[in-house]
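In this notation, each integer encodes one residue's backbone shape. One such record reads:

___
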Amino acid sequence: MALSDTFGWLEVRRIGEELADRHPGIDPVRTGFPELRRLVMALPGFREEAGHPSNERILEEIQRHWIEERSDLMEDED
């Protein structure tokens, strides 16, 4: 299955993967929601959709997926 060129707030798993790939030096646990929102909005292909703004729950899910993906990447390096 091919990934779409664009994605929005509801694609939390993809966003977490993108953040882990693009920001390996940033600790998602120490990243506050305003910074997380900024990082997501700066991802290539991210498009904010009308009717689907970010909220705390979405940001928490993105952060959780980012943490998981980062852990997976670190395990692969070992």
Observations:
- The chain has one domain: 12-77.
- The CA atoms of residues 34 and 59 lie 9 Å apart.
- The chain has a mean pLDDT of 91.
- The two ends are 29 Å apart (CA to CA).
